[in-house]
Amino acid sequence: MAEQKEKEYQLVVFTLGQEEFGVDISQVREIVRVVQITYLPKAPTFIEGVVNLRGQVLAVIDLSKRIGVPSKERGENTRIIVVEVGENTVGMIVDSVSEVLRLSSEFVEDVPSLVETEVPEHYIRGVGKLKDRLLVLLDLNKILTPGEFQLVEKHVKGVVAKEN
């Protein structure tokens, strides 16, 4: 059997409440300050609304509501991480973004049952072990189901149609 090359993760690290999370940088398009969010009636509670980001209307989800983690009150450090999941682009509100980090796969484990986190296990890709902290690695492909993406797109198209 050929020796497997060690993989390195490059992650955008952010916080929600007291927990630190990481997402694959290849899925992050940009990180922006929170701008005016237009509320969408009849949208699921975790969808905050839509924003116009340089001419593109994007749905914005409150990641803490989606994954069930308490967040801090929005403030100066609150950010929207614009991510691409497959063909979809969506914004995620997080409490703060702290760093971009390289992490060797030898420091990433599957979700051990001993790790205390309020995040449902199916959203988690793994846990990164750093010197003095743990990093919950989220699987962005599981944050929204294909049906939820379709629902979000329907809401966004409705807003775009009203603007035109």
Structure report:
This protein is mostly beta strands. It has a single domain (9-163), classed as CheA-289, Domain 4 (OB fold (Dihydrolipoamide Acetyltransferase, E2P)). 14% of the residues lie in helices and 43% in strands. The chain contains two helices and eleven strands. The strands form two sheets. The chain has a six-stranded mixed sheet, with no helix packed on it. A five-stranded mixed sheet has the order 3-6-7-5-4. The longest helix has 18 residues, at 146-163. The radius of gyration is 17 Å and the shape is globular. The mean pLDDT is 86.
Gist of the model:
The protein is mainly beta and 164 residues long.
Question: Layout of helices and strands, plus pairs?
Answer:
Layout (H helix, E strand, L loop, with lengths): L7 E9 L2 E6 L3 E6 L13 E7 L2 E7 H5 L11 E7 L2 E7 L1 E9 L3 E2 L14 E6 L4 E5 L7 H18 L1
Parallel strand pairs: 2-11, 5-7
Antiparallel strand pairs: 1-2, 1-8, 3-6, 4-5, 6-7, 9-10, 10-11
